[in-house]
Specification:
Blueprint lengths: L1 E2 L6 H10 L3 E5 L21 H10 L3 E6 L4 H8 L6 E4 L4 E3 L5 E3 L4 H17 L5 E4 L2 E5 L5 H19 L4 E6 L2 E6 L4 H10 L7 E5 L4 H8 L4 E5 L10 E3 L3 H10 L9
């Protein structure tokens, strides 16, 4: 693990976690808990991650939350936990509590009509294999395509989708391996904001993410917790520390649960 910001010592944070009666662990999924796969429905967690999350989720002191761009219904089978944790999906538009109750944020009808137009374009262009539909979002993936074909698809998609984002309440955002047109009413930062609003000051919080979409969450967390970039290569980031998966990721998760448990009231 490499420290990126002065004064952010992971060992100090681990000690805080070990002494805390309550803590919050926020985790992105793709690229963080699981390697990227061209076959998106086969992006399973790194070996050992599922078992570590099960132990953390079983510990009553931790509020375990997955914050993902994936739709909740697509994410849960991949996660494969016996007792699914709290999940914020579709960049904060969806919220599923551990008891299974779920809500979706309201969306502007103009945005929904523009997304329908984007879907019609995907169908007309025969790009269904590259498309992923989620609540409030249409994503195009080119991971696994030859470089020239990926670049051409990127240019073609920008030309077609940029006009749909104008004045409709949609943003066109790049991510690692694709492009997505999504409702701008919510982001991962909104999920982090809602979670922090429910937690007392002083509760240790960590957010682990890899993508540009996680930078909003890093900014929202600010100095309130530890911001962890998880990816094989370092890039510019607001994160406090950088670790490489899967080895350093598993070490981080192992540190989350101290050997000696603190009695809960």
């Amino acid at each position: 693990m490499k420290i990126l910001r002065e004064g952010k010592n992971p060992e100090d944070f681990y000690r805080h976690v070990a002494q805390a009666r309550r803590r919050v662990l926020l985790l992105d999924y793709d690229g963080t808990l699981a390697p990227f796969r061209a076959e998106r429905d086969r992006a399973l967690p790194y070996p050992g991650v599922r078992e570590a999350l099960q132990k953390i989720g079983d510990d009553r002191r931790t509020r375990l939350v997955i914050v993902s761009g994936r739709a909740v219904d697509d994410l849960l089978p991949l996660l494969g936990l016996e007792n699914p944790p709290e999940v914020w999906g579709s960049h904060g538009l969806e919220h599923r509590k551990p008891d299974g109750t779920a809500t979706i944020a309201p969306m502007d009808p103009k945005a929904l009509r523009a997304l329908a137009d984007a879907d019609a374009w995907v169908q007309a262009e025969g790009l269904q294999a590259q498309a992923e539909e989620k609540p409030g979002c249409l994503a195009l993936h080119w991971r696994g395509l030859p470089a020239a074909k990926a670049q051409e698809l990127h240019r073609h998609a920008l030309h077609a989708l940029e006009p749909l984002a104008l004045g409709t309440g949609l943003d066109l955002k790049a991510f690692d391996g694709g492009l997505e047109l999504r409702v701008n009413a919510r982001s991962k930062a909104d999920a982090v904001h809602a979670i922090l609003a429910q937690e007392p000051a002083g509760v240790p919080v960590a957010y682990l993410g890899d993508d540009r979409t996680d930078e909003d969450a890093f900014l929202e967390l600010g100095s309130r917790g530890l911001r962890v970039l998880v990816r094989p290569q370092l890039r510019s980031t607001e994160a406090d520390v950088w670790l490489t998966p899967p080895g350093e990721l598993l070490e981080f998760l192992a540190q989350w649960l101290p050997t000696e448990k603190v009695a809960t009231p």
